[in-house]
Design a protein that fits this description.
The structure is a homodimer of 300-residue chains.
Chain A lengths: L11 H22 L4 H11 L6 H12 L8 H18 L9 E2 L2 E2 L1 H4 L2 H22 L6 H24 L8 H27 L4 H28 L2 H4 L5 H4 L5 H5 L1 H19 L7 H12 L3
Antiparallel strand pairs in A: 1-2
Helix pairs in contact in A: 1-2, 1-3, 1-4, 2-6, 3-4, 3-8, 3-14, 4-6, 4-7, 4-8, 7-8, 8-9, 9-13, 9-14, 13-14
């Protein structure tokens, strides 16, 4: 039995709404229960509860379910990885980095508060993600493996940010290889980690973990190709952040290196790869297929 | 049998040199083995291998030994907490924070490289500390408890930095209470964590863990009172960082609130408290006593 996009029965809206609400509620409770000065708490809440697609936690939860686990079992790592993602956005937006004024249609945290608070709140969000795993994840025997996944992926993401903004590529890499290395780290690492953490919490066996990992690697790269395409085809208003930013800054992008048409073919190829990876998981992975479809055609 | 300063047989030099070398070697190996772009690796090495007292790892190792463990058993958390300390220095020195040009007698990381690299290298050093615990600490059953200690203390330290530089104190606190809250978080949390992690890795029983925790809380506060005293009594050259900075910026300090003499009495009182806490551990804790003596009289 093969699975195609048309067979995915779960609607994209339901796919997103329910896990996002669960994670936002979990995150709000965790941040509110933690002893923090009011100014820091407010800055953290602003950064982590200010909207966003919640793609990573949704992937964690759906991957957990795809291997037979419950959404509940993946909630702590799903929340932690969204916090790591939010921390990275706060620091990436800083004046010394991307110097962005707008994020998710609102002022960035350093514009809303100040630079010092944005640096410290970002640091705190990162460290709180690890505190959350260490103090909330059950069963406790998973704390080690999940912390390993999360810490490794966080560092890989930071490596991606360095490669993207400060260079440091392997000098023997071609431009396309450099671009792939950047994105495998910058976007791919957290997407892969989200899916793997979810599967581990769902008690995946080795074959299941391999399947979802291959799926994650394909959609992680696809996510970035689509992002690059959106940057050249969409407006700032639609994106909720500055458009044409990458091409304006002369950054390597897929459309820039391969052209728009070949980039779109790459999206189709990666989508196919993701589907193939999920084949052994049968209908249980339909939600992951729907997510893949959405990521291939998203408009923002 | 009581223990006084004169009974501490271990020389201060030996106390510091050997654990510091162990931790620096461990840290260098870990950073070199980790796949990283050269520019990021160099920035991380500059920040973590640029000298410093290595107080926190030394406390971790000596606390482990004080409860009957080996230095080796505490090496991973000793290294991780030094990395957390180094990360905090890199970010604290940033222009948007303390804006320091000098650290440990050398240019600060953002002066040596640039602000973006200092932000990202700081982030990486923090996340690498957790990666180190998750991937290197043995036995694996300690990963959860040690990550809990490290993550909680890191967040408490960040809270201290917020209280110190951005406010957010409980409005019902008196100035002295606010000052203590700042320092219990900013300096105290990591010192307490270092000692507790060491003791946990040395398989301390509850009573031993309580003893070293009380010791750590006393010397943590003492460390800060001494720091404030040094800020008003020492030169920039001796300190390797800007002197008179706190008083110039009108920050709350112990000498500022209590006067120099009463601050010195506070040091004596806390030293006594630390000695009392170690009483049940007997001669095994002599190294911790020597460290306490050193911290009470240090000149930089």
């Amino acid at each position: 039995m093969t699975h195609t996009a048309t067979q995915a029965q779960v609607s994209t809206a339901a796919m997103f709404t329910q896990p996002a609400s669960l994670v936002e509620a979990y995150m709000a409770t965790f941040v509110d229960e933690r002893a923090l000065p009011t100014n820091l708490r407010e800055a953290i809440r602003y950064a982590v509860l200010g909207g966003g697609k919640r793609l990573r936690p949704i992937l964690a939860i759906r991957a957990c379910e795809a291997v037979g686990g419950s959404a509940q079992a993946a909630l702590a790592p799903a929340t932690a990885i969204e916090m790591v993602h939010c921390f990275s956005l706060v620091h990436d937006d800083l004046p010394a980095m991307d110097d962005d004024d707008l994020r998710r249609g609102r002022p960035t945290l350093h514009r809303h508060t100040n630079e010092a608070m944005a640096i410290l709140a970002g640091d705190a969000i990162l460290a709180l993600a690890f505190e959350l795993i260490a103090t909330r994840l059950e069963p406790a025997e998973l704390v080690g493996p999940i912390t390993t996944e999360l810490a490794t992926a966080t560092n890989d993401m930071i490596v991606g940010q360095v490669l993207d903004t400060l260079g440091g590529h392997d000098p023997t890499d071609s431009p396309v290889e450099s671009l792939r290395a950047t994105h495998r780290h910058k976007t791919g690492a957290l997407i892969r980690c989200a899916v793997r953490m979810g599967a581990v919490c769902g008690r995946a066996d080795r074959a299941q973990l391999d399947s979802v990992t291959r799926y994650a690697e394909a959609i992680g790269l696809m996510f970035q190709v689509v992002d690059d395409l959106l940057d050249v085809t969409q407006t700032t208003e639609t994106l909720g952040k500055a458009a044409n930013k990458d091409s304006d800054q002369g950054k390597l992008t897929y459309p820039g290196l391969l052209g728009i048409e070949q980039s779109q073919e790459e999206v189709a190829r990666l989508k196919n790869e993701a589907y193939e990876a999920l084949e052994p998981l049968g209908a249980g992975a339909d939600a992951l297929r729907t997510l893949c479809d959405y990521l291939a055609v998203r408009q923002k």
